[in-house]
What we know:
Blueprint: H1 2-27, H2 39-69, H3 85-90, H4 98-104
Amino acid sequence: MDTTKTLLETQAQEIRAELARLNELLRERGDYGYGTGDPAVYQWEFNLALRERYEQRLAQIERAMARLEKGQYGVCEECGARIEPERLEAVPYTTLCITCARKLV
Ligand SMILES: [Zn+2]
């Protein structure tokens, strides 16, 4: 289980670094006076959406780490079933089994 923890921590660190970089980029909001077709504006919006995705991912990783602490890692949050090992390997931070994850989509 130690390797899972390391894996999750590494991923969390990578995302935090990426978030810091995005926050830096987003601080330079640019001038919206150029109009909506401006590539700089498009890039800013893109970074904003990206940051949101990373924040969600980070929250998910933190949830998975908390579950690891409680010895509940690999158990589905929704139905309590064991999450498929292949799924955990592909998505180590998941807290849902494939059936429940599909229901959410
Ligand atoms: Zn489930």
